[in-house]
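User: Could you check the structure of this?
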Amino acid sequence: MTEKKCIGKYIILKGIGQGGEGSVYLARDEDLHREVAIKLVGRQEEGAKEENRILREADMLRQLGHPMLPVIYELLWEEAWYLVMEYIRGVTLQEYIGKNGYVGEKQARAWGLQLLDILCYLHTRKPPVIYCDLKPHNVIVCPDGNLRLIDFGAAYRQKFGEKTGRMAVTPGYGAPEQFGRNGKGVRADERSDIYAFGRVLYYMVTGSDPARPPYTLLPVRNYQPLLGDGVERVIRRCIMEEPSERYQIAEEIRKDLKKGDDGCRRGRRRSFIRAVEKRVWLTEKC
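Assistant: Sure, the predicted structure tokens are below.
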């Protein structure tokens, strides 16, 4: 697609990204004089089955209403299916951490609680909505400092007894069960989103991207020796390999992340300073 192409009443300005299921463009609504995001979600040649999937996805998104989610304006057919939605200004969390290195504990807790708020909302729909591809690239840091969640191409409604087919998943953030390991088929539930949340929180506080091969994580202490025990415990429990060993619902994490551990952190800071002073003293003696 080239610049200045029209799709209905929308003028395409530029490409702004590649979503889990299609390209995303910045466009201008000529009737309402506002900028919108338009996502290519399917083409005619993909058949009736794919068309039904697109219609179900659009219907699911229209039923969701949360301050952290983009507003869906319409599903448009113009030689292909396009989803027209609110354009959210800001930078991705991936870009933010890439520029700043990492965020402090206070900011990580605040942003973590915002992400948990949207996960609680999605997981308590009837039926639950499983996001499936939570990663820094799908989180927008807005100019006001708050987070928004974009790209629901991988999300689906979880129905009791329903098996999951193909799944868009990002190595390093996707839970083991989303890859069908240990002889089991591909599957996902609320605990899969919790696993991804733990890895996103890890990325926030360490600046080390779990999506870089070989996808294994060094202990948080290797990067942030003064980080509070509470945040580290939350991360460890979120990213357990077995779903049964993780937090079972997002609300549990929210309660733990709200707890402060200033006393423990002060004690660790004193121990850390003493260890550094001792090392300096030994170096001077040598």
